[in-house]
Amino acid sequence: MLLTARYVLPVSGPHIEHGAVLVRGDRVEAVGTAAELRAAHPDEEVTEFGSAVLMPGFVDLHTHLEYSAFRGLVDDVPYTRWKMQVVEKQRKLDAADWDDSAVLGAMESLQSGITTIADITNSGASTKAATAAGLGGVVYREVSTMERGRVAEELEAAGADIEAWRSVMGDGPLRVGIAPHSPYTCHPELLQGAARIAIDGGLPAAIHLAGSKDEYDFVKYGSSQLAQDFRQQAGWRDVAWMPTGVSPVRYVLQWGLFDVPNIMAVHCVQVDEDDVEVLASHNVGIAHCPRCNAKLGMGIAPLKLFFKHGLTIGIGTDSPASNNTVDFFDEMRIGVLLQRGVSTERDFYRFFTARTFVRLATTYGAKVLGLDHEIGSLEPGKRADIVAVDLSASHMVPTDDPYSALVHTANQESVVMTMVAGRVLYRDGEYLTVDAERAVARAGEIQMKLRG
Ligand SMILES: [Zn+2]
Q1: Fold of domain 2-56+376-436
Q2: DSSP letter string over 128-140?
């Protein structure tokens, strides 16, 4: 199959005008100009996208597909109050609700051009939804408890789920990982145990880390709303918690989680340069969630420090529960604008470009997951995870810089095709692996339950 468009963005190299990508089976076989590939493969079936960009699919480094039906439910409160309200409301859902909410998330991912997810779940709903939809990436089994006496059973349950989810995933493009939720919801022995499971089993690991100031104050000083109201709500009020005197990053370092070879920290807003040095020296990848961090009042992550210390970084959406959509164009656009907003014109080194954000959204994100040999750019031999983004709408013309158009102009409605491993999963508003009508209807029912 030969895909052609006005622009092909391999991301790993310069863009090609009037370009083409040759797909054979689940692989990219060749990338070049449409003229040369048509001449070399005259009998190949051609799909012409016209005034569009063909590029590698987006890597959403942080999501929770199963929370998609929470969209708009808790919109105008800062992080800790948001978290408390979500935890209270989520008790109303049953297993079928979580499953269908995850289907909605998988559907929106495809529409947004996301081909790889890094999803954290404890219900396993995302495993089923992402597998059925055809998405690739990692589904992390979340673990959490502050009670020392429950650590062993939590780890045992996680081990059983990991095995079960592996058989759901089969030999498709998804794999399983483990994710202790955060420093404020995990007993230190749980952090240690999760690290051991990841190291022994060769699994990737992830943790929400240094997101809100409340988390920072809770870990370092033992105070904040997380220390009181949240712990009471979670039933951990009587579990001892002493101020640690260190930042969340240094606290997690003490319990060995950064010894996991493929470890990703999500958010990392409340960090200083010493913390960033710790993250860099342990090769911790960062899931940067600019829109969620801003919306919940967590702050703006110091991206220039991350780059200065050579961290591996990608972009995450953190699901519609906090972010309202998983529109990856919004994520790139808001991400670059926030960084420029806290920069200065003179500081050219810190003036982030559209090109950098397209790399964060694709090839750099793939590197965080250790999948950059397989995905993240359009190169012969890599998996055919390809999206087509239309640039012909009136608000998109004229354009002669595809990077600029993707970051400053396009949105998720601009995506006209999403392909994973050579399979078209979404095309011109149609979902080929998801029952979209049912997913939308169920979303309304689930949210009525949440609001009731
Ligand atoms: Zn999250």
Answers
A1: Urease, subunit C; domain 1 (2.30.40)
A2: HHHHHHT-EEEEE
